[in-house]
Amino acid sequence: MLELIQAGGWLMLPILACSVLALAIIAERFWTLQRRRILPPALRGRAWRLARERHLDARHIEALKESSPLGRILAAGVANIHHGRTAMAEAIEDAGRHEAHRMERYLNTLGTIAAISPLLGLLGTVIGMIRVFGAISADGMGDMPALSGGIAEALITTASGLTVAIPALMAYRYLRGLVDQLVVEMEQEALRLVEASRPGGGGQRGEPA
Fold it and tell me: What confidence score (pLDDT) does residue 203 get?
């Protein structure tokens, strides 16, 4: 492994740094974006019971805010329950945008890593080929160590850049889609709770078990 890094030249250092950072972001986001942490089933059931019993006062709303991203969106809708459906829907959408921004934390960095890693590999390829042509110009085809070193640098950096970029891009696309899906589910759950919280809203319909 160390030999490959040395053969790849100094551009292997930023490529390795990108790989470590991408791995850290992917692990952190997969841990943070677990469904049970974003959409706790127990929280949904408790919120529905409170809504049915009309116990969603300031203390319960604050408890919802502190529980999870879903809780913050539920609290945003319920806090505006006396201001009409339009105000509640706007509050839920606004809270959903804020939660989406929080859940997308570090994803732009991951996308940047996926974009620049192959470019770093390409730069290594160019530098390696410059070395090859420089050796050919100076010594002809007789200096095989210089030629093989330049070719190795070009191939290793290219392969390393792609090795980092491909999984980073896959994880970036998946995590962005996951965030969008979770936000939509949270907003839908909040709207259902708001409907149940309104007088005559029919708290039993669609209520979680």
Answer: 47
